[in-house]
Amino acid sequence: MEIFRDFRDVPDAARGATAAIGNFDGVHLGHRAVIETAQDARPDAPLAVVTFEPHPREVFAPDAPPFRLTGPEARANRLRKLGVDVLFELPFDADLRELSPEDFAREVLADGLGLAHAVTGPDFRFGKGRAGGADDLARFGAAMGFGTSVSEIREHNGLRVSSTAIRTALSEGRPRDAAALLGHWHRIDGPVLHGEKRGRDLGYPTANMSIEGLHPPRFGVYAVRVDVLGGPSAGTYDGAASIGVRPMFGENTANIETFLFDFSGDLYGQPLSVALVDYLRPEATFDSLETFIAQMDADCAEARTILDALA
């Protein structure tokens, strides 16, 4: 998958695409419906996604709590797995924000990216002040030489698939419900960071990763499936992870610490993708390290049972 971060000077080989347009946070089933509609609209054309970075909500509400389900790299990885050929990850800067709906359609979609067809969800808004909608895009496209389609709303068990519903499920410790709306396990991606190395001394060495900027799932312990994405230990492993502030040790910065079962190796600096499978228990403090270790033993045994049962 090729990635372009400017709509100017797009090479001819990347022009003429059929593109799904949106933020694609989490790349959930609703987003997949938009991508599939784009693929069906012009099967002979390159399949593209047009998205924005940073997420517009981060620009317009910079003091709001972290809400993103995925960062840009994780989003790109998921889109690549869905067969997207070209990702236009456009900078959501002052110049782009000031474009009227018509100017956005002309300067970005028609002249800049040279789209053959554009697909959006029914609630898509674009242009300065979010003034443009799907009907406007269809009108502009007809005048500017690109086709348009609107994807249907996708539901799961009568619930509309949305990033908001997924965030709610994660906040309540329901990762399987989140996965049903996503169409895949919710994953936390990032490099392994150096930590305090307490786990190693306790017999449970963990891979520490930041969750800064991401919507925090319910704090506690999870059964997880981990993809090590690089290095000599690349592969998939089962494990148990703790998300939170480590109250046993008086920490206050949230992160995720993952213990990989049956693993031996150095993961520092390596990229990991940690899939949340099941919520086991909340964070807790213990009256002794012996009690803490006994609980970790129990957590890992429960996680193994859950993960062994997965198809």
From TrEMBL:
It catalyses: riboflavin + ATP = FMN + ADP + H(+); FMN + ATP + H(+) = FAD + diphosphate. Pathway: Cofactor biosynthesis; FMN biosynthesis; FMN from riboflavin (ATP route): step 1/1; Cofactor biosynthesis; FAD biosynthesis; FAD from FMN: step 1/1. One of its GO terms (biological process) is FAD biosynthetic process. Pfam families: FAD_syn, Flavokinase. It is an enzyme of class 2 (transferase). Its EC number is 2.7.1.26, 2.7.7.2. GO terms for molecular function: ATP binding; FMN adenylyltransferase activity; riboflavin kinase activity. Residues 181-308 form the Riboflavin kinase domain. The keyword NAD does not apply. Catalyzes the phosphorylation of riboflavin to FMN followed by the adenylation of FMN to FAD. Belongs to the ribF family. This is Riboflavin biosynthesis protein. It comes from Roseivivax marinus.
